Amino acid sequence: MAVLSGGDVPVKAVGTLGPAGTSSEQAARHVWRTFGADGPPEIRLFGTYEEAADALRAGDVSHVVVASAYSGVNDYYMDTRLALASAFIRDTPLYGLARRRDREVLTDRPRVATHPAPLALITQLLPERFSGHEAVKVHSTSAAAIAVRDGLVDLALTTQPAVAAHDLEFVSRTRTIRMLWSVFVAARD
Q1: Could you give the CA distance from residue 152 to residue 145 in angstroms, rounded to a whole number?
Q2: Looking at the predicted structure, is the pLDDT value of residue 36 above 80?
Q3: pLDDT of 65-102, one tens digit each?
Q4: Above 50 in pLDDT, residue 4?
Q5: Is the bond leading into 41 cis (omega within 30 degrees of zero)?
Q6: Maximum pairwise Cα distance, the chain
Q7: What is the pLDDT of residues 166-180, one digit of tens each?
Q8: CB 87 within 8 A of CB 4
Q9: Which residues cross the membrane (predicted)?
């Protein structure tokens, strides 16, 4: 569902939060398909949404996709160098708590890597066998998956694409998040 028309700025490259496997990457692919860019998708993933905005201001990408749940999204609306081109509602990939396939979680209070935005989901999804958790904040759901893969934490609140990419498995039920996504372009002078 497009709220505004974003088709007046040709889609050359879409920037968003990475690494590969984030909900933002899936939303960026949706923008690529919706606004009719030809050829294989040119999606550029950045370590933070701010880095994606810097790339937009520098002309390295034509569009940036930002989740409305991101706590810093207001900065994009206030930045006179950026313009809102479109907004759409799209469910995220499945979210859940994942572990390495080769490691059981032995503690009653696991360390859980998470992006700050979906932090509340940990309590919703944490299996009853755990008495609590310690949240470890990272820049993205894919970064959370990498933290588990690398043995830095016990669990990750992450997405199905990140679970598949890093050979993890869910230990909780899963769910999507109904999300509003904002698409920004460089403001015209």
Answers
A1: 10
A2: no
A3: 999 999 999 999 999 999 999 999 999 999 999 999 99
A4: no
A5: no
A6: 58
A7: 999 999 999 999 999
A8: yes
A9: none
